[in-house]
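Repro:
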Amino acid sequence: MNAAEDATHTLHNTYSLRGAKIRDPLAWSKYLNQAIDMWGDEAEVVYSMHHWPVWGNEALNKHLGLQRDMYRYINDETLRLANHGYTMVEIAEQIKLPDAIDKHFSNRGYYGSLNHDVKATYVLYPVWFIGNPATLHTLTPVDASKRYVEMMGGVDALLQKAKAYYDKGGYRWVAEVVNHAVFAEPGNQAAKNLQADVLEQLGYQAESGPWRNFYLTGAQELRNGVAKLPTPNTASPDTVRAMSLDLFFDYLAMRLNGPKAAGKHIVVNMDFTDTGEKYSLEMVNGVLNHTPNRQAKGADANLQLSRDALNNIVLQQTTMKDAISAGKIKVTGSETKVQELMSYLDSFEFWFNIVTP
């Protein structure tokens, strides 16, 4: 059996800390149960991506069964406790896997962690609001931190008290408290140094690789700032070519700076000469809508182009202006309106602050 990444030698992420849609542990468990039902009597080897095989039918079924039960337990126990009124953080603190699951080597949290997988399951169902109205409309981290620091008697007093907890090994509490000092006074290097020290200690203790990486990356930023390293190109030519036009225009709309575009109205028709596809784009009310198989009457501009010309713009191998000048894109109507539309699209920095405002 090839188990893909559904039954590996670690507790997987039902939520990736790097950012992704939450995965459903109940469905995960049910698919593993289905696999056992379909092939459990026959299979002699099971392997997963990035992991080594499990040999022998008995060991294989034990491995799959414990993985199945782990994801099911995470789902069902989270929901059971939520129905008792416990909040996301409270549930994540009190859930412990049964020994039979927890002590099996392949179920340890080397990659995912029980704590953040439980939190992800909670958010998958009851979402973020815990019912306490005090949490309904909280201040921003910077605004709240300034007030916390003031109430604690200032940054110096806060750091002195936090250092006492640090010396006693209260690292989780120190990280939470000193974070307020860092956000209240981001230029205070003493605060950043203490926060870096505590994140480093938490990193040393982390069983999960991603947790350790985040802790140590945070410590690095606090001590040295955000390094402006070379930016990887996440949009490969193959990926861009594989995108449907509908997906591409959704991506374009996500980049539109709504506040800047609000009050502006631009309509552009696009006719793709090589694929025969036609789209109408309308920027209105700070959003960019697109409609397939349509050419709007009275559009501000009409573009004739190939999909390859569009790909080259997405891959930053050329610009819209240069493509028009080179005859790769033919425009009837207002070229100025096309350029205006493009001017409202944001570009994103790959590197950004994590533990500092």
